Amino acid sequence: MIPVVAVGAIVFDGEGRVLLIERGNPPNVGLWSVPGGRLEGAETLAQAVAREVREETGLLVEVGALSCVVERMGDDHHFVILDYLARVIGGTLAAASDARAARFVPTDELSTLPLTDGLLAVLERARATHAAWSTSH
Question: What class does CATH assign to 4-135?
Answer without folding.
Answer: alpha beta
